[in-house]
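Teaching assistant here, posting this on the class forum so everyone can see the example we discussed in section. The complex has two components, and the goal was to see what a joint structure prediction looks like when all of them are supplied at once.
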Amino acid sequence: MPRSILAVDDSTSMRQMLAFSLKGAGYEVEEAADGQQALNIAKTRSFDLVLSDVNMPVMDGIELIRQLRALPTYKYTPILMLTTEAGTEKKMEGKNAGATGWIVKPFNPDQLLNTVKRVLG
Amino acid sequence: MSIDLSQFKQSFLEESDEGLDVLESGLLALDSGTADDEVIHAVFRAAHSIKGGAGTFSLTEIASFTHVMETLLDEMRDGRRAISKEAINVLLNSVDVLRELLDAARDDVPPEMSRVNEIQAKLEAVLNAGNNQATEDKQEAETESEQQEPEADGWVIKFHPHEHMLRTGNDTVRMFKELAALGDLENRVNLSGLPEFEHMDPELSYLSWILHLKKNEQQGAIDKAVIEEIFEWVEDDCDLSIEPLTSEPDDTSTSEQNDSPQPAEIPVSETITAADNVIPITGESDAQTVPSKVPAAGVQQPAEAQQKSSTRKKKATETGSIRVGTDKIDTLINMVGELVITQSMLSQMGEDFSMDKIEDLREGLAQLERNTRELQESVMRIRMLPISSSFQRFPRLVHDLGQKMNKKIELKMFGEQTELDKTVMEKIGDPLVHLVRNSLDHGIEDPQTRLAAGKSETGTITLNAYHQGGFIIIEISDDGAGLPRDKLLNKAIEKGLVTEQDNLPDEKIYDLIFHPGFSTVDQISDISGRGVGMDVVRKNIKELGGNVDVRTEEGRGTTFTIRLPLTLAILDGQLVKVGNETYIIPLVSIIESLEIETDNINTIAGTTEVYKMRDKYIPLVRLYEVFDVQPGTHRLQDCLLVVVEGDGGKAGILVDDLLSQQQVVIKSLETNYKRIQGVSGATILGDGTVALILDMSGLLTLAKEIEPVQNYQNQTYANG
């Protein structure tokens, strides 16, 4: 069974890039365009990892993480924020919401895969 | 591995275009003060996404330019900076620059940097006018990892996770595995923090560790930054110290443990060398398996779902490639389903048909017709887009031009969700812009004039779109000065377009503005009146099978009404018969059809035939002559006259007979054969024969060429 990843980003090109890179590395990927969509998908199944953008319409990444952590299935699931903010403020907000860690944008596919490998082993 | 990212560039550019539209309309809303909180967030998000994507796809100019925009918008979003007119204007300019940068990226050419730098400097100036703190924390991350300690034999890592660290999904096992991959890891766990079993909360972490990480032969020296990176995500959730390993074997670190009453330190003599060695002593993994019957005081704060209202209405303003809503597709599938049912019903009936079933057959066929029509309409709807994508450029246009001309203008838009065929939409863009500019320039007066006329200082331009029958109506109205009737008339007389004796009704006079080469502007401004006149507007609209009219009242305003077919693929046509041929005349161009009274036919200048219709003379076009076919009859009283309106005015078309009116699917002649004057396309009729669809303007020109050149208009007026 390949490990499954939920990739959440409102930007189509970012989602494409994430899905392409991760699938290429053998992961199973589902995509969502905002927090609400992601939450809806997350409620129907489990994932080994969630990658989520922070700034999104409808429901942002911070709120998504908060809501995911409230679900029994996602209590310990690694959730990484994809953030452009180098500053600590957003990271802290995400951490407080329950984020496992972050990947700072811009990142290239190699950096992405390295981090994902770190988390999923 | 390396992945080619260029394949995603196209999507990035497309979504950036959409982002720019959001930016622009958001900024304009902010400028006019009609914006709520969500607008500035959406604007920020748009800039933010463009920056993020640009960075990812290595479009460095775009990334660094948007970075400045984003910083400014971020401060506005947080309320750290007031939303000033000046800032909005610079940001609007930035949108333009960004658009140029994106275009350059699209064409793979280096961007024109001078304007980019100019606007970026302006942005920075605005940014620095306030506090310039925001830019500083961005550098922080980069400098952090740069400090390099001198090479050490190894490291002592004191790691004490806070109770709640596990709740973020961080796993000590994973981190230790990563450490173990760097060198030889020696691990001491401190169990002193463990509470009594019944007080233990399986979700909390009670342990702390002292880890000795020694460099070994294979991996070599260990960089402190690498260790820091492993703990990066938890550095605020734990007490952590990383010190170089001193030569003393057993160390000073115990002193720190002294604060615990019973130093229950259990030395674990396990040395982990490979990553797959799972450490069995990580206390919390045991703890996790404890059944969670233990009441957890102060743990249960299950992140109360403060539902951020997701009710934000999302305007569907996608452009570029067509995106079809799933509801449309679902409808389509539904229709096909019904069609299949009808078909099977009919074929079943056919198997043992007898005359007593004729009623059922009729009903079945009626249903088939209904299905077909609905299916056709649904398929057409796929090509339909809301006109908002065409309207959305106007707020900016009105904003900019209004500022330039010192006019105060409010733009109101209605019916933005009215749908229109994509091709029609693309072609109507320029005429619309022209009409709106026209209203801005000639329609709306300057504030002083308006006040003097007893109007409000702010002029209003209204764009409205709605469906009417198979047409879309677009109205562009202003509450400005209206068209000057006398001035128009004088100009027309001066230009020799009409004579004083013509006694034109008002509507005809106003219609003169669509005449080629007619412009009333005393002074040509750079806004409109650049020679591309209203005649071109009308011509473009006519080419789309539509029309444009003007209504005006002096001092009260002007309204242009554009009427366009919803689609170019289907047309309402009148089938007419000439000899053995069937032609189709677009219903829009037909004014009326009448029986011919031979007395009314006159010949002027020997060759040109005209028909007298209610005291007006219209040229007579014998279709069989134009297309050189054998007519069914030469007796005029057996023929019918279809009065049509084309570009050059009215004309009567002589046909043998009128057949039915029906919707026909337009097939291009050009792509299948070649362009023929007077014919706009062809269609296939119910019986399988091909019928040509007539293009009135082209036909009338053609008819004039066949006969000796005559100036109908003067003759007509002279006779009338």
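For the discussion questions: The longest helix of chain A spans residues 12-24. The beta strands of chain A are 4-8, 28-32, 49-53, 79-83, 101-104. Think about how each of these relates to the inputs above.
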